[in-house]
Specification:
The strands form 3 sheets. A 7-stranded mixed β-sheet has the order 3-1-2-4-5-9-10. The protein is α/β, with parallel strands linked by helices and 481 residues long. It has 2 domains: 145 residues, Aminohydrolase, N-terminal nucleophile (Ntn) domain (Glutamine Phosphoribosylpyrophosphate, subunit 1, domain 1, 4-Layer Sandwich), CATH 3.60.20; 250 residues, HUPs (Rossmann fold, 3-Layer(aba) Sandwich). The protein starts with a strand and ends in a 5-residue tail after the last helix. It is 37% helix and 16% strand. The chain has 17 helices and 15 strands. Helix 4 crosses helix 5.
Length: 481
Amino acid sequence: MLRTTVFESDARVAIVSSERFADDPEGLDVRAHMADSALQVRLDALEDDPFDFAVLEINRRRPEIRYRASPVISVPVYLIADGGVVSIDWDYARLLGQRAAEIVWDIALAQIAGLPTYGPRTIVAGIYRATAGATLIATPEGVDVALPEAILHDGPYELQPDADLEGRLFETVTSLLASRPLERARTAVELSGGMDSALTSLAAATAVGSGLMSVGAQFNGVMGAAQRERRRLLCEKGAFDDLSIPAERFAPFSPLSLRRRRYGVWPEDENYPEIFEAIFAMLRQAGIDALISGFGGDELYLAYQGEEETQAADDETNCPFLTSMGLEIANAARSTYPRAWLQQSCWQSAASQSQRVLRYGLWPIYPYHNVALARFISRLPRSYRRDRRLLRSTLTRVLGSPVFERGYLKESFDPVALRGICENRDYLIDLVARSPLSRHPEIDHRAIRATLAGDIAALDRDTFNALFRTLKIYCFFQSGS
């Protein structure tokens, strides 16, 4: 799925790792020595690449290393510069090793409050993360960051009367998959039963052929029954070899969960690594090495200032587990990352999954993480973006059923999260009591412990979500190994 090209000049060595197109050669390509200006032309041309890439530059004239990430960044690396030594790894746990992680408190408080913190600084002091379109610059003096320039959305366009938007959306997603070197026996699709994965899986079946493996978590109750029916329709249409995992058997914080290990799960990781660990292990056993996901579908359908969904955007942040001063500190740490065609939560969701897929030998493919596609959707009239109307109508056409347009009951992980906290309540109460986080004056650890000891099922949604976010951070910074 990847290829590496090495460029050399008198001034530097540049190592480019990029996603392969179907007709690209595999492996390593070392280019002949060239003038530095010619090398820069090659690097500048990467901005037009529709897929993911990364560039590591080693300066031959001064002690400096640069790492530049693409605007779509599927897999970020983490960097530590300490005592003149630079360490870079996509696996933060391997990078941390046995060292004690120092907490970056303003970021920790912002994450407890549920505020976005996307940027090169991380919740661990001294560790920087590669972010979309940015360059990390490591020298003996430390680490600096060159952020990308913000883009300016040009707003909705008028449509031609005969515009076939449904056809264009499906053909675009299909072509983004067909242009990659995918093999049917080695490729799987995530199939949650939701709209985003529905379109990417059907596009994958068109691009690669029938018989792809599909995987997803299956829920219980009325919600689960609706999800099961959607999955059945999708599997029939795409002719998938389907594998479903009973979600409630892999509840978070369980005794075998990676969250019980120090540094086991990054605080910004997705909420249910227990489920995905099981899924990815089975994919590896089945010989799968490429996984197509619907990450980023929600974020395509943005709303501009003045459109109805933006009215509540500036609501005051509140959190029952932070003091008023803690909330002030959290708000000051809120992400101000430059605006791009992709939304911050796209990059965050990709980063949250990246450790896990790579540890299981999988390469993640996110068709919605594409600048041209994001620009196309952003220029649609509001009527097509509102409530993701275009996606719903496209699925009706491709699937031959209006199930995503009429009476769509979306799946939710909430019952699984509730079970995970309730069944592991004693462990979590003890975790909070022993944690270095509880010694911070702006975190109300007594309120956290009281909430854990009370009726968790009766909590309002905001408090429950705040509790879950907080516990993820406590798990990461736990004592011992």
